[in-house]
Amino acid sequence: MKAPGSIRARLILWAGALLLAFLVGAGLAVQRAHADSVRAAHYARLQSTVYLLLAAAELDAQGALVMPEGLAEPRLSLPGSGLYASIRQVDSGQSWRSASAVGREPPFRREQAVGEWRFETIDAAGRSYLGAHYGVRWAGRGSQARLVLSVVEDSATLARELAAFDRTLWTWLGGAAVLLLLAQTLLLDWALSPLRRVAQEVRRIESGEQAAIEQAYPAELAALTGNLNTLIQQERVRQTRYREALSFLAHSLKTPLAVLRTALADPQRLPAAVTEQVERMDHIVQHQLGRAAASGSAAFVAPLALAPVAQRIVDSLAKIYAERGLSFTIDCPPDLSWRLDEGDAFEMLGNTLDNAAKWARRQVVLRVRREAGPRLRIQVEDDGPGFSDHERVLQLHVRGDERVPGHGVGLAVVKDLVDSHGGTLTLSRGSLGGAWVDIALPARAAYASTQA
């Protein structure tokens, strides 16, 4: 699959194309509107000239057309001025032409219906003209005649006027396009600069120059950079957990191996020593594997419904401890979900409930609820003897050996999981008189945003 090009280049290209298309479209619309307006103005002037001719025309007693020597429009008296006029008597065939038409053959109209105007563009003798024509029945001194008044103008004047406007229009639009493209490029560079800074920081993280994304970014990128930092932190925590697990495992197995090595010299003690030390090593391995597998921060997992998980665990424990007749109570809203890895949920709930079931006399209670903050609260209590040494139980996971059956491995794994989620785990005596385990897990930023 071909990799996409630069976002900057694509934005500039398409934004520039749209800008140019808009300016060209606007320029053509303005050009067309101006041309129509100027042409209408020229026709209006030609119509005014027709009215001027009507005001000056007279018929004598014989019905002949009489025109004054001079007219109010000076261009009609100037030969070759570009404005030409004609009045034709349709019945007699006689006609009058303005002095400007001397030596020229403008395309005057010979027929026109009485009372109707006609405006047109006429091509004749290789030139183009604008014409205004009007037909009228004129009454004079005891006579009347049907007249056709025709005024034409060389369109070169119109063409020069339009050309001057077009040059000005496209010059300004071209300059505006250059300035807008430059401003647009600068604006895009400024708008995309946070992306370039993010890329630079990621390269520095890859090269080991810095540990996380440190700069502040706009709201559109803040979620991305926050999640990147969370992902980086998760990976580092996971790597640290694996290294520590291997280190603790190597250290913790030294003592059982030394005991087994010593037992080899005393064959009578060997079977008991092997059984004891193998069980001890099994606990150590389980604990360290649990620590290494802890998912920790859960910003990128889907919300998990907790009630079904709790019910599955309780159903399994009820079968395991069926002969003791324990009563399990679950207080968890059926619609409660949390952004938590399913494996972590089973480890937390399973180990705490299993620990409570081992020491309970008759009753185990699980409470799960969402609290303000937001945070998830998990509480497990039983009616057993309770914890004899709270601090020692919570610190067992640090040494990785000398675990107490029923408290050691399970609660140590739970403590590691809670710590990896940034939560707290508290041990005390509950209302039932036995052990009380209280877990509080804060919501990750990514999860909190989805719940807002």
UniProtKB/TrEMBL annotation:
The keyword Transferase applies. Residues 189-240 form the HAMP domain. It comes from the Bacteria. GO terms for cellular component: plasma membrane. CDD domains: HisKA. PROSITE patterns: HAMP (PS50885), HIS_KIN (PS50109). Its EC number is 2.7.13.3. Gene3D superfamilies: 1.10.287.130, Histidine kinase-like ATPase, C-terminal domain. The keyword Ribonucleoprotein does not apply. Residues 248-445 form the Histidine kinase domain. It catalyses: ATP + protein L-histidine = ADP + protein N-phospho-L-histidine. One of its GO terms (molecular function) is phosphorelay sensor kinase activity. Its main location: membrane. Keywords: Kinase, Membrane, Phosphoprotein, Transferase, Transmembrane, Transmembrane helix, Two-component regulatory system. InterPro entries: HAMP_dom, HATPase_C_sf, HATPase_dom, His_kinase_dom, HisK_dim/P_dom, Sig_transdc_His_kin-like_C, TCS_sensor_his_kinase. The chain crosses the membrane at residues 169-188. Pfam families: HATPase_c. It is found in: Membrane. This is histidine kinase. It comes from Ramlibacter aurantiacus.
